[in-house]
């Protein structure tokens, strides 16, 4: 396996295409995909040659690995030192960092995705449609990424489906996760060379309070979702958590303002929902594995690691949230996963 195509072309500069495969410094090509609303990134070093070629910001970069079209993007930064260019290119998702002001009517994630991509003037496709209607919203001086993030989070809360955006070579796509459930097994006996498993409650909450200012009486009316009952008479309390987590983790409290014009019943529902989201451990798994081009953010892969099985994590499939490929003689990949159990 090897890089089978690697070209740079000046935007608007005619039909001249530079083949830079022989100019790329060994083991400097790195490609990253990430579900955290960021563009795919390709970094590489190339040696300077006396043939009139110099990379320019905005240049089109195309790369294929083992005959598979892998990256299509544009140069956004380069450094020159010791007769070498260090280049950073981003795929078309980079243009979703554009800021804008939009008054959204009631629309779906799919409709909002289509509109922002059209406004950013990037080729796009809805792979998985969403039918959930997101409430009208005013977005002022926000990035397209932030607009989509808000709509996706609302949709996920409503129907449990996780959507994400990613570049499929030269086309930005809206997909539902996991996009592909790979049959690849990553583990002691298959591809893996190193792993790190983490459980964290640093962002967890065992008590949630939703607060609404009572303007007529000058007092506060509060709905609380907690693993244990509260006796404060100034608050309306609903029990929606697990006493077990309070006993083991302590009182970890989160306060949130009530939604506009929410009544007490709606505040209780809001508190229960927020507690459901926060009353958990965050589990992440990081692996270093032999490279495989299908290991990209948004896909899922199986893990099978004996020492993890010993602490309760057996063979199971998990979503890849970030993948960094290191191309070269030794093709490796760093994979980050969200572990849901």
TrEMBL record:
Keywords: Coiled coil
Family matches, as InterPro entries: YqbQ/XkdQ
Stretches of the chain forming a coiled coil according to its record: 252-284
All residue ranges annotated as the YqbQ/XkdQ domain in the record: 29-336
Highest taxon of source: Bacteria
Pfam families linked: YQBQ
SUPFAM superfamilies (alphabetical): Phage tail proteins (SSF69279)
Keyword Coiled coil (UniProt): yes
Protein name, UniProt field: Late control protein D
Organism this protein belongs to: Lactiplantibacillus plajomi
């Amino acid at each position: 396996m090897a890089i089978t195509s690697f070209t740079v072309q000046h935007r608007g500069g005619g039909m001249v295409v530079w083949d830079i495969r022989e100019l790329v410094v060994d083991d400097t090509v790195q490609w990253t995909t990430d579900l955290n609303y960021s563009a795919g990134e390709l970094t590489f070093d190339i040696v300077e040659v006396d043939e009139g070629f110099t990379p320019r910001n905005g240049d089109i970069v195309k790369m294929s690995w083992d005959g598979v079209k892998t990256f299509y993007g544009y140069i956004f930064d380069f450094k020159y030192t010791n007769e070498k260019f260090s280049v950073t290119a981003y795929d078309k998702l980079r243009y979703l960092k554009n800021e804008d002001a939009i008054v959204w009517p009631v629309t779906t994630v799919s409709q909002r995705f289509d509109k922002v991509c059209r406004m950013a003037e990037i080729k796009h496709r809805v792979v998985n449609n969403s039918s959930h209607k997101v409430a009208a919203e005013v977005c002022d001086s926000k990035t397209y990424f932030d607009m989509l993030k808000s709509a996706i989070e609302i949709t996920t809360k409503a129907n449990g489906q996780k959507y994400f955006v990613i570049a499929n070579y030269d086309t930005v796509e809206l997909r539902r996760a996991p996009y592909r459930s790979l049959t690849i097994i990553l583990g002691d006996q298959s591809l893996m060379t190193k792993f790190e498993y983490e459980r964290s409650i640093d962002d967890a909450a065992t008590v949630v309070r939703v607060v609404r200012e009572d303007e007529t009486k000058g007092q506060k009316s509060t709905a609380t979702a907690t693993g244990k009952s509260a006796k404060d008479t100034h608050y309306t309390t609903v029990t929606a958590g697990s006493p077990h987590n309070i006993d083991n983790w302590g009182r970890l409290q989160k306060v949130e303002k009530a939604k506009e014009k929410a009544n007490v019943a709606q505040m209780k529902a809001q508190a229960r929902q927020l507690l459901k989201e926060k009353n958990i451990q965050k589990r992440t798994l990081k692996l270093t594995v032999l490279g495989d081009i299908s290991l990209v953010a948004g896909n899922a892969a199986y893990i099978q690691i004996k020492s993890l099985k010993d602490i309760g994590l057996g063979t199971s499939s998990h979503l890849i949230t970030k993948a960094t490929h290191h191309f070269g003689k030794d093709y490796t990949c760093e994979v980050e996963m969200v572990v849901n159990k």
